[in-house]
User: Which sequence fits this backbone?
């Protein structure tokens, strides 16, 4: 388990059968606590999706402008999260090492075809030039 104190969250990471990194994150700022053991009924929605790019600040500005999203709790040349606790676009630098506190789980961030649908003020579709990403904003 990873303790993200600066995000007031805890996460566990694992690989799906295709080798993709999956994270279950408990965001303690949200009022959705449940009693009892964790089960499938406790998975509320996909709240994060990673988009791997070469220039994080530039891509973050572009995605942010299209989706009407702002950086969430900081930004850097390696990583910027856009949105809020209910949904984040994680913009990461290509090749960034994803290490979830276990050396055996190190994996470099890579580009994969990705389609994202988010809510926003104005409906539009955006494709980042040179990348297989589609961000569809629905108003």
Assistant:
């Amino acid at each position: 388990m990873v303790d993200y104190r600066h995000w007031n969250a805890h996460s566990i990471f694992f690989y799906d059968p295709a080798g993709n990194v999956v994270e279950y994150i408990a965001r303690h700022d949200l009022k959705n606590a449940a009693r009892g053991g964790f089960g499938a009924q406790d998975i509320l929605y996909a709240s994060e999706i990673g988009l791997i790019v070469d220039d994080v600040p530039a891509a973050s500005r572009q995605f942010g402008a299209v989706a009407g999203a702002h950086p969430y709790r900081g930004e850097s040349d390696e990583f910027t999260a856009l949105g809020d606790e209910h949904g984040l676009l994680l913009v990461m630098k290509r090749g960034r090492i994803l290490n979830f506190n276990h050396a055996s789980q190190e994996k470099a961030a890579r580009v994969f075809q990705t389609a994202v649908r988010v809510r926003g003020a104005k409906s539009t579709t955006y494709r980042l030039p040179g990348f297989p990403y589609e961000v569809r904003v629905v108003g």
